């Protein structure tokens, strides 16, 4: 188990790679969604899907690492409700890092499309399943709002710890504790 002042390099690396990739794939998704149908739009969709698939793999690694390493202790004592809220937000963020790319993959599979990662097929195309495609599309679209809310809560919590509690939370997530 880690002490309250330090975080392992894999914890820090996996956190930031997922955060940066999610922000990038989210921005790309917002940009491409309203573009007119064109080869350029489909190329952006391919990039979006490829990054999403890689996020899923990294998220699985992160969850395995988290289980192996154990829960990250808080940087400072806090009221029970804050600790519970923090754990809930972290848990939901981890679930969302699985749900978002999985729903995207299922959306493509439901549309009868192969899953490719930067042009390399990782799952063959299958039969169209409109109900799966529609359900996964709904989940994928709704998950955007959930993720934005969780990112905001996570960010506000980190800033509160850094600026009000002055416990170095952001500093230790940057590997400087």
UniProtKB/TrEMBL annotation:
Which Pfam families does the record cross-reference, listed alphabetically? Answer: Ni_hydr_CYTB
Signal peptide region: none
GO molecular function list: electron transfer activity; heme binding; metal ion binding
Q: What is its main location?
A: membrane
InterPro entries according to UniProt? Cyt_b561_bac/Ni-Hgenase, Cytochrome_b561_oxidase, Di-haem_cyt_TM
**Annotated TM spans:** 12-31, 51-67, 88-109, 139-159
Localization per Swiss-Prot or TrEMBL: Cell membrane
Its domain of life?
Answer: Bacteria
Q: Name one GO biological process term.
A: respiratory electron transport chain
Where in the numbering of this chain does the Cytochrome b561 bacterial/Ni-hydrogenase domain appear? 8-175
Look up the record and report any one GO term of the cellular component aspect. plasma membrane
List the SUPFAM superfamilies hit by this protein, alphabetically. Answer: Transmembrane di-heme cytochromes (SSF81342)
Its required cofactor(s), as named, are: heme b
Gene3D superfamilies registered for this protein in UniProt = Transmembrane di-heme cytochromes, Chain C
Supply the alphabetized keyword list: Cell membrane, Electron transport, Heme, Iron, Membrane, Metal-binding, Transmembrane, Transmembrane helix, Transport
For membrane topology, the record states:
Multi-pass membrane protein
**Family affiliation:** Belongs to the cytochrome b561 family.
Q: What is this protein called?
A: Cytochrome b
What is the originating organism of this protein?
A: Vibrio astriarenae
- Source taxonomy: Bacteria, Pseudomonadati, Pseudomonadota, Gammaproteobacteria, Vibrionales
């Amino acid at each position: 188990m880690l002490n309250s002042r330090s975080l392992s390099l894999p914890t820090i690396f996996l956190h930031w790679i997922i955060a940066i990739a999610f922000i990038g794939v989210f921005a790309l998704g917002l940009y491409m969604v309203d573009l007119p149908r064109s080869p350029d739009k489909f190329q952006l969709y391919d990039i979006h899907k490829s990054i999403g698939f890689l996020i899923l793999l990294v998220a699985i690694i992160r969850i395995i690492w988290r289980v192996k390493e154990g829960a990250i202790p808080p940087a400072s004592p806090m009221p029970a409700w804050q600790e519970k809220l923090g754990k809930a937000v972290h848990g939901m963020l981890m679930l969302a890092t699985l749900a978002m790319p999985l729903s995207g993959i299922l959306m493509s599979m439901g549309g009868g499309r192969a899953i490719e990662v930067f042009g390399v097929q990782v799952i063959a195309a299958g039969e169209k399943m409109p109900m799966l495609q529609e359900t996964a599309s709904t989940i994928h679209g709704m998950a955007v709002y959930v993720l934005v809310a969780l990112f905001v809560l996570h960010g506000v919590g980190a800033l509160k710890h850094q600026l009000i509690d002055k416990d170095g939370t952001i500093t230790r997530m940057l590997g400087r504790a």
